[in-house]
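WP5 quarterly update. Target: Coronin. Source organism: Chelonoidis abingdonii. Length: 431 aa.
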Amino acid sequence: MSRRVVRQSKFRHVFGQPVKADQMYEDIRVSKVTWDSSFCAVNPKFVAIIVESGGGGAFMVLPLAKTGRVDKNYPLVTGHTAPVLDIDWCPHNDNVIASASEDTTVMVWQIPDYVPMRNITEPIVTLEGHSKRVGIITWHPTARNVLLSAGGDNLLILWNVGTGEMLLTLGDMHSDLIYNVCWNRTGSLLVTTCKDKHVRVIDPRKQQVVAENFEEPIALQEMDTSNGVLLPFYDPDSSIVYLCGKGDSSIRYFEITAEAPYVHYLSTYSSKEPQRGMGFMPKRGLDVSKCEIARFFKLHERKCEPIVMTVPRKSDLFQDDLYPDTPGPEPALEAAEWLAGKDAEPILVSLRDGYVPLKNRELKVTRKNILDNKPPMVPRRSHSTCDANFSRPSLEDLLEEIRSLRQTVQAQEKRISDLENKLCKFTNGTA
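Structure tokens (predicted):
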């Protein structure tokens, strides 16, 4: 009679617990979190939450260091003319976030380290190319400034945010609405799920589907019978997948291995209140001194509640087995290198001494002069005085002057915000 071998795992006893009340972001009276927002976007500096705002599109950015009650006049990031459907922080710049909207555009924003006094209304760049709502955006994991968007027009578009250009358009690959998109580790391939019930692995640079609708799954795990949207989060460093159901009140987590049966159930975190959405902190934003291996940000109607997952250890020393080197904030490639066919592994960093977020790094967009791509104009038979004055050099001078004025306005805006912050401190008696 054979004896069943129980697999032992260092993650067998992973404990999840909510943080203390004063460490939540609560009483968010600006507006309710939208039901369309299935998650919030999190990085080591900020948490961003999509909100409803007068029929337009907006989201709120909260510094992780500032918790507690959120003022009703807290500034928003606004600019879209229709609801925001997706947001994603740039993996290579903690102060840059992209947003996708029902208004068919994608906008990229620079978020200051200080809390602005007014709404942020001017994006760094607006990306226009979709003909219908844009529901999905995701940054390339290793190439600088490469962003992918998927819209209701069943198109995938890759952008160079640094120039505001469209790099690639992937059409005729999906016959129905695209549900989700994910890159592989190096960004050489991407996988999509679609309403037509097909899973596609795509090589974007060759613009072709390399695999589609696999015949048999290597493992099948039945979760429950509810029809809520399932939100999966995968940690490649620990090979743990966390499954959160929208409208559910639990988080189930499993370890993935290369040997059969491949999927190993670990445990379930349960709470009393259901989640409207969920965010997942990148590994470099965790507290390694407390053996924290995952941190979620659970969206309620009027609060955002962090939930930490820890592996209890008796020693206070750094746990090497829990924290292998992880992808850091530096890109491994430039956009042009990736487009030319080059691939690279992410640049890894050690978490031994903890991760300290970098200071605000400005994203500069350098647009190419469209006049350089136009053929020379054929001389006309007659020229008016107005036509002669409006020559190509004068137009370039005008564009340069507009750029200079815009930089001056942005500098003055920052100076005004700094002064308002100082005045606010004096008014509150904190300075």
